[in-house]
Amino acid sequence: MNKLVINSYDEFASHLGKELGTSEWLKVDQDRINQFADATLDHQWIHIDVQRAKEESPYKSTIAHGYLTLSLLPYMWNQIIDVRNLKMMVNYGMDKMRFGRPVITGSSIRLVTSLNAIENLRGVCRARIGFKIEIENERKPALEGEATFLYYFE
After folding, report:
1. How far is CA 65 from the centre of its chain?
2. Is the dihedral of CA 102, 105, 71, 58 positive or negative?
3. Which listed residue, of 7, 20, 108, 121, carries a Cα 20 to 30 Å from 41's Cα?
4. 80-103, pLDDT tens digit by residue?
5. Alpha helices of 1-152 — where are they, by DSSP H?
6. Using CA atoms, how far apart are residues 28 and 47, in angstroms rounded to an integer?
7. What is the pLDDT of residue 146?
């Protein structure tokens, strides 16, 4: 997989309106879901009770927390892009975010991104990144939206 390497605002801006890349597939297993439940104190049975989910869930399986799916975005984003010459990068916001489909335990997901907008705000680069977290062998994505990052280039 080739990472997109960005060294400056101008290089970043040259990708406006284009796909930036796609991450590798990442399997979401029960152990990851249980660890997330412990970290967030969200132990709803639909996520952690395998037997009950088999019997009562419409999916016949446990499913990942929606926020677990969202929390994997930075890991997958780092597979797509390498922004260099930075003092720092700050998460600024999320917009138009929709959970379209649950991630059934054992499924694999990946991130697909595009540069929707970019601005130079007195030396700070504000980039709006369109993202879609796809589920392997599913038409509808698990999650899609737009993330805004502030990049402080040196």
Report:
1. 13
2. positive
3. 108
4. 999 999 999 999 999 999 999 999
5. 9-13, 30-40, 45-48, 50-56, 66-71, 73-80
6. 12
7. 98
Each domain of the chain, given as residue ranges in start order, spans 4-153
> How much is the pLDDT for 154?
87
Low-confidence ranges of the chain (pLDDT < 70): 1
* Assigned token pair, 122: 């007195």
Q: Which fold has domain 4-153?
A: Thiol Ester Dehydrase; Chain A (3.10.129)
**Burial (0-12, 13-18, 19+ Cβ within 10 Å), 154:** exposed
pTM for the structure as a whole: 0.93
3-state secondary structure of 57: coil
Give CA–CA dist 80/26, Å, rounded. Answer: 14
